[in-house]
Amino acid sequence: QVQLVESGGGLVQPGGSLNLSCTASGFAFDTNVMMWYRQAPGKERELVGSSGFSGGWSSYADSVKGRFTIFRDNAKNSMYLQMRSLKPEDTAVYYCHRAPGYWGQGTQVTVSS
Fold it and tell me: CB neighbours of 33 closer than 8 A, spacing ≥ 6?
């Protein structure tokens, strides 16, 4: 069955960096668009960014553009989210997603001094 496992979350100070990983199994990773979402307390889940099949294209929410970068390694069935210049408003649970409806368990990112 489809499984998505995120890792790499933690506590980081404002202005810091953090790298998240998503390891996938149970489907053909290299033929699927993959996405990162996040959900902050009391808010709806929002799309952070998307990555095309081969990683040849990616798109980002305006709130993270220029600070976050998505990478993927199809040989390892993995996708990564490189986060830089983190702000307190980036605090959320970050999820790996593959349509239609497959989610990981999420990894907590807290940006605080």
Answer: 50, 51, 52, 53, 98, 99
